[in-house]
Automatic annotation (TrEMBL):
Example GO biological process: protein import into nucleus
PANTHER family, alphabetized: RAN GUANINE NUCLEOTIDE RELEASE FACTOR (PTHR15837)
Name of the molecule in the record: Mog1p/PsbP-like protein
Annotated family: Belongs to the MOG1 family.
Keywords noted in UniProt: Protein transport, Transport
Length: 180
């Protein structure tokens, strides 16, 4: 079991609990100011926090599906499947962080001109900030089977999904001035 730590995102304006061993991608390459990207040191799993303009949808399910479709487009996916969409419910944390809509899906993505596509599981959470016209999107990409032979076991996916759930439930917007 890995240890977790609360990470400051976007200069501390947002916080979330993540495994301590994750690598901040900005230490390795340039990352847009609207993103925070974390990589697992021993696999191709990534976690991305992204500040985006609200998509043109009002229903939670449609909002999540539009963002999932956008990720599929960016990945040049040859196939995409939404498995499940749900709206988190509960009391919240006592601050103004909205409850997200969560989506689980798969994408088939051809990488590096390989004939066989990689099977990518995508976990997605969207926090709609209506007043700021912002969708805060948290996504986790888990390449289950790749054309270069790298495979992630189902048990490792379950662990990744637990990590995603912890990040989703712990995410807190500390400073709304980030969105001004």
């Amino acid at each position: 079991m890995s240890t977790t730590a609360t990470r400051d995102l976007f200069g501390g304006a947002i916080t979330a609990t993540l495994p301590a061993e994750l690598v901040d991608a900005s230490d390795l390459r340039q990352v847009p100011d609207t993103q925070e990207v974390f990589l697992y040191p021993d696999s191709d799993i990534s976690i991305i926090f992204e500040i985006l303009q609200c998509v043109d949808a009002t229903e939670a399910v449609d909002i999540a599906k539009l963002h999932f479709g956008s990720i599929a487009h960016d990945n040049d996916a040859v196939e995409q499947t939404v498995i499940e969409v749900s709206k988190l419910t509960g009391e919240g944390s006592g601050n103004r962080t909205p409850l997200p809509v969560v989506l689980r899906g798969t994408q088939l993505v051809r990488k590096f001109n390989h004939a066989d596509p990689d099977e990518l599981r995508v976990l997605l959470a969207v926090y709609r900030l209506q007043e700021q016209n912002v969708d805060l999107v948290l996504s986790m990409n888990v390449p289950m089977k790749t054309s270069d032979g790298a495979n992630i076991a189902e048990g490792d996916f379950i662990t990744a999904r637990e990590t995603f759930s912890t990040a989703v439930e712990s995410l807190r917007i500390v400073d709304y001035d980030l969105f001004v």
